[in-house]
Amino acid sequence: MALTAGKKAIFSLAALAIVVVAAILYKTQFSKPSAALQPLVIGMSPSFAKTLQVAADEAKQQGLDVKLVEFSDWNTPNITLNHGDIDANFFQHQPFLDNTLRETGFKLKAFATGAASHVGLYSKKYHALADLPQAARVVVPNDPVNQGRALLLLQQAKLIQLKDANNSLSTLADIVQNPKDLQFIEVEGPQTARALDDADLAFGYPHYLRLAKTADPESALIFDDTTNNRYAILFVVRDDYQDTEGRLKKFVEIYQNSPKVKASLDQEFGAKLWFPGWK
């Protein structure tokens, strides 16, 4: 049957409408950036940069794009994460995170566990703890969690005695015996390595010492005897974090299982100074 001019016009408009709708749907579905295509952004301390970059390079080969952001202090990574500007951070252990949540009310949680390391007492002036003079200057972190860890190590070294020998949150005010009259210098945790030059003794983290190049990480006068994962570094996320397509899970699996990452940890910490906190 032949179509009238009016019917031809109607069919033409209908066809045009279908083309327009199809174009809109195509643009909506394929032109809008997908969250899965955005880089996975992880904040970290500089001391973990080399190892995480090894993991990120391996992830890239597997189709996972990871962007690493360095923070020079231990406060900004959690502020930035809580604000939603990064997907995760990697710089803190569980006691530090617990203390941060108590003090700030941030809605953060541990997602996975990384490497744990031993800590030590270092000196560039003395070769044994017994050689420390009276009123020796000792560097310790100024945050309550890591200061508590430093004091437990000083107690293990029999240089001080704490009111509660097992309290991991002890402060300088909790020292009940200090036979050498040690003089304490409080600095931010990341600065303990650099403060070693100006002190007789310093509490130190092997990876920060290697980064600062102020001392051989394996030259401590004493190391802590901790072998559990209490102080293992965590991948931390917001409480409401949704792991799109399992990208963070995949990155963690690379970090925990890659031979290249293990080799980097051996180099950055020292093969005997770290252990897998996830086991």
What topology does this entry show?
Elements: H1 5-30, E1 40-44, H2 49-61, E2 66-70, H3 76-83, E3 88-90, H4 94-104, E4 108-113, E5 115-117, E6 120-122, E7 137-141, H5 144-156, E8 161-162, E9 175-177, E10 183-187, H6 192-195, E11 201-204, H7 206-212, E12 222-223, E13 234-238, H8 247-257, H9 259-269, E14 274-276
Parallel strand pairs: 1-2, 1-3, 7-10, 7-11
Antiparallel strand pairs: 3-13, 4-13, 5-14, 6-11, 6-12, 8-9
Helix pairs in contact: 2-8, 2-9
Description of the structure:
The protein has helices at residues 5-30, 49-61, 76-83, 94-104, 144-156, 192-195, 206-212, 247-257, 259-269; strands spanning 40-44, 66-70, 88-90, 108-113, 115-117, 120-122, 137-141, 161-162, 175-177, 183-187, 201-204, 222-223, 234-238, 274-276. β1, α2 (49-61) and β2 (66-70) form a beta-alpha-beta unit. 37% of the residues lie in helices and 19% in strands. The strands form four sheets. The protein has a five-stranded mixed sheet, sandwiched between helices. The chain is of the alpha/beta class. The model is unreliable at 1-36 (pLDDT under 50). The chain has nine helices and 14 strands.
